Amino acid sequence: MEKSKHSIAAMIFHWGFVFIFIYGILKQVEDINQLSDISLLKFEIIFAALMLILLIIRYFYMSRTQVTSLPEDTSMFQKRVAKIVHLSLYINLSVIPITGLVIGILYWLGLKSGIFIELTVGLHELSISTMYWLIAIHVSAAIFHRFRNDGVWSSMVPFLKEGK
User: CB-based burial of residue 2 (10 Å sphere; 0-12 exposed, 13-18 middle, 19+ buried)?
Assistant: First the structure.
C-alpha cells in the first residue's frame, strides 16, 4: 500500500470544511427575522463570504495539485460516481453561502418577504438538505474503502490508518 496521495494542505482543507460546515449548521439562523439584528446579519454575510472564498481557494488548490486516491483498477462506473459526488459537494458547498449572501443582502436592503427571497431561502434549504445526503454518500464510500483496505481511506483520514 502506498503512502497518502493527499498533501497536508489537502487534508487541512478537507477537515477544515467539515468543521466549517458543522459550525454553520450549529449556528444557523432558525428564522429569517433574526436577521433584523444587524450584528447577526453582518456576521452571517461575513461568514458566508469567507466560506465561499475558502471554497474557491480549496477547489483551485485541489484541482491543480491533487490526484484521486482511487486505485488504478477502480471501475469506470465507480470513478464517475466519485467524480459526480465530489462535484456535487462543491456545487452545494458553494450554493449554500451564495444563497446565504443573497438572503442577507436582500434582507439588508429591506426585501424581507416576497417570491424572490422565498425562492432563495428554498434553494438555500434544499442545498443544505442535499449536502446531508452527499455527506452520507461520501462517508459511506470512505468506510467502504476502509474495509477494502485500498489506501483511499488513509489518503485523507488522519486516524485509524489502514493496515498493510
Answer: exposed
Residue 46 and residue 133 in contact, taking contact as beta carbons nearer than 8 Å: no
- With H, G, I as helix, E, B as strand and everything else as coil, classify residue 28: coil
The candidate with the shortest Cα–Cα distance to 44, out of 27, 19, 65, 63, is 27
Angstrom distance (rounded) from CA 120 to CA 113: 11
CB 112 within 8 A of CB 32: yes
Confidence of residue 94 (pLDDT cuts 50, 70, 90): very high
CA angle 129, 133, 139 (to 5 degrees): 135
| pTM of the predicted structure, to 2 decimals | 0.86
For 57-91, give the secondary structure using H, E and C.
Answer: HHHHHHHHHCCCCCCCCCCHHHHHHHHHHHHHHHH
Each domain of the chain, given as residue ranges in start order, spans 8-156
Count CA atoms within 13 Å of residue 21 on its CB side. Answer: 21
